[in-house]
Amino acid sequence: MKRYLNFPLVKGEASRQAHADLPEGTYEREMSKEGFFGPAAFFYHRNPPTGWIDFDGPLAPRAFDLTQINEAPNSLWSAPVVLHNKATEIRLWRLAEAMPSLDRNGDGDQILFVHRGAGDFFCDFGHLAIGQGDYVVIPRGTMWRIVPTEPMQILAVEATNSSYTLPDKGLLGPHAIFDPAVMDTPEIDDAFRAQQGDLETRVAVKKRGQVSWMTYPFNPLDAVGWHGELSVARLNVRDIRPIMSHRYHVPPSAHTTFLADRFVICTFAPRPFETDPKALKVPFFHNNDDYDEVLFYHDGDFFSRDNIHPGMMTLHPTGFTHGPHPKALTRMFEQPKAMTDEYAVMIDTRDPLEIGEAASAVEWTGYKDSWKAKS
Ligand SMILES: [Fe+2]
């Protein structure tokens, strides 16, 4: 069993409670192991830790405006990869018309996050209506297709060679944040039966990153029923009831929604601001030295970020110090309004991410300078 050099110390002028009671005029920065779960140190700086006047080299943070991706392929496997590593593959997929064939992922479980639009999802397990704000969790090997009822924009996150699981809710109990009973699963219904028949159907199977085609003289989504505990499942972000503390800015890890072997998916949903006058109201500065952090902005007003709009994605590489933008920093102990009004999907990966061509093409190169105070 590993044991960290792990004992609490207090040096100089410091708060003894993270994210609250900061020495007058200081800025708190957290340095920690294992995301926000391991040993940590909290520094009280005289200047904002993001106050650099120049930043050069590959560690710089990146931002991509995925709304500018215009390709609209009719298979997920042709959708552009925006970020990837050995543990995940993240794509932005615009789907305008009914898929003419089925997709199947042999490389790992798949999550489709519906950023915009709606449609009917048909799969081995039946039929499920899907729409904006839905996470659709698809077990590896499932055959599926989507018939949009409105043009769709989907953020697809693959758990390469892994499975999606739910986090342990610990002291909060299993029904906190979201009750697993709010998740929906496909039905063997009239819509599902109506799409069955002897229509020649092709299946695009992705395995080891390559696509193979299987052709059937019938639609293989032809189950008359099934039983078991494995299924496609849908969770809508509006069914998430985030935890908060009126006296403590809880870390992003408290918003974990799904786990894979080498990354986590968290959801930021609207929640009240802290009310204790000495508690931080904005995310604290931190390095996150063990995880690359990806944030996909789904909906709302992103109070801690200037110049960010829905459909954008940011990447904060491991070790890059970040925190609130200058506008939010001026009110780190104020309540700008009663509630945050933002939905965002965070993907924190244990291994560094590579940037795909599609993302490079829509990069906002000014992002690394966005912490500079406006004159
Ligand atoms: Fe972060």
Please characterize this protein's 3D structure.
There is one protein chain. The chain contains 3 helices and 20 strands. It has 375 residues and is mainly beta. The strands form 3 sheets. Strands 4, 5, 6, 7, 8, 9, 10, 11, 12, 13 and 20 form an 11-stranded mixed beta sheet that branches. Strands 3-18-17-19-15-14 form a 6-stranded antiparallel beta sheet, with no helix packed on it. Strand 14 (256-259) and strand 15 form a beta hairpin. The longest helix has 5 residues, at 190-194. The radius of gyration is 22 Å and the shape is elongated. The N and C termini lie far apart (52 Å). 39% of the residues are buried. Bound molecules: fe (ii) ion.
Mean pLDDT score, rounded? 93
The number of helical segments is: 3
Low-confidence stretches: none
Strand content: 35-45%
The largest sheet is: 11 strands, mixed
Q: What is the β-strand count? A: 20
Give the ligands present. Answer: fe (ii) ion
Rg on CA atoms, Å: 22 Å
State the end-to-end CA separation. 52 Å
